[in-house]
Amino acid sequence: MPDYEDDKQGLVRELFRAARNISMLRKSDNDDFTAEDEAEWNAGLDALSRAVLAYGSKTPENLALSESFGVWWSDDDEREITVENFCVAEVMNCAESSTIPENISTELPGVTQRQWQDATRFATLVLSSLQNCGPWLQQARDFIEAARRVSALPRDFDEVEREACLAALRNAVLVVGSETECNLALCESLTTSVAENGRHEVAVGGYSVVDIVACAQSSSIPDYVADYLPGIPQCAWENGMRFATLVLTALRE
Questions:
Q1: More exposed terminus of the chain, fewer Cβ within 10 Å: N or C?
Q2: 83 φψ region: left (φ > 0), alpha (ψ -120 to 50), beta (else)
Q3: What is the per-residue pLDDT across 187-239, written as a single tens digit (0 to 9) for each?
Q4: HSE-up of residue 77 (Cα within 13 Å, Cβ side)
Q5: pTM of the predicted protein model
Q6: Contact at 8 Å (CB) between 22 and 132?
Q7: What contacts 144, CB < 8 A, 6 or more positions away?
Q8: How far apart are CA 49 and CA 65, in angstroms?
Q9: Which DSSP category does 58 fall into?
Q10: pLDDT given at position 27
């Protein structure tokens, strides 16, 4: 991986590139998994692990995450990032239908069930778009770019400029995710919040999406997720929420 030193933007680009490259992995043969294939897949996973540690630092949580990565190959020829053998986007997608974790209500008083659903819906769209290499690749990239533009707003932003950025993001949500009930609800709640360092970020109902998802790392697996994904271990939930938090945080850089 290139040595970006303290170039945060470079680290973000490498993280996003490594994640997208997982979805572009191929097999030499549809039935047989060759030694060359294994070497290519391992190289892709190593690049993703290095990118996570370079951007997020070598904390115990990030080290555990970096060691949990794998690749899921679907019957319709799609590849997705897994943590402990569970697709990270699917884990987040299941979280959308779960009851808000108790610790989030404690750590972020005022966050509602609706805002939990909207935050996890947004995170699902981000994770799915990041791994999209099919015919919707450009729409996925436009969505990621629209989310990043929100964080590029100047501290003394003009309200007209803010609304223009949010309108572009809402439109991108509906293009990449379609006009489903949950996506329309997400668009209605999308707004911005300002962190202590003065940076803007995507929010739902005034609460930072990053903060909501980050809190979920320390929660128990919601009952709905456990029922929908039988056998999912606590570490898969924690690593899934950790990866989502890193990606969402990277959007703010």
A1: N
A2: beta
A3: 999 999 987 777 789 999 999 999 999 999 999 999 999 999 999 999 999 99
A4: 9
A5: 0.92
A6: no
A7: 16, 126, 129, 130, 251
A8: 8
A9: S
A10: 66
